Amino acid sequence: MNKLNKTQHQIDCDTLMENIAELLRKIAKFSLNNRAKFEALVMENLALQQTDEMKKQRKRIPQVRQRVLIMYSNQSDSVILQPSSPVAIT
């Protein structure tokens, strides 16, 4: 129970499962009756998800670059400090 809201919320599991089953039946019926439209909707949603994922990854590029620079900087420092240690090139 939330301290700000003194009401308790309960979900009837059977009702929830019935609603999910009904929704899945409607999706199946729509996909069978309108195959081309359903495929277009699925492809459009996949493209949107991929675009969103790319946006998230692009936002992380500066952070990843900084980490790589720090990693290589630390690696080159250790090589300079310990010239006898072998350097693996991958």
In short:
The protein is mainly α. It contains 2 helices and no strands.
Describe the structure.
This protein is mainly alpha-helical. It has one domain. It is built from two helices and no strands. The chain has helices spanning 13-33, 35-81. The radius of gyration is 27 Å and the shape is flat. It starts with 12 loop residues before the first helix and ends in a 9-residue tail after the last helix. The mean pLDDT is 80.
Features:
90 residues, mainly alpha, 2 helices, 76% helix, 0% strand, flat
Low-confidence stretches: none
Q: The biggest beta sheet, please?
A: none
* Quaternary form: single chain
* % residues in beta strands: under 5%
**How many domains comprise the coordinates?**
1
Cα distance, first to last residue?
Answer: 54 Å
Average pLDDT, all residues:
80
Supply the helix-strand structural class: mainly alpha
Discrete helix count: 2
Give the C-alpha Rg: 27 Å
Number of strands: 0
What is the percent of helical residues? over 70%
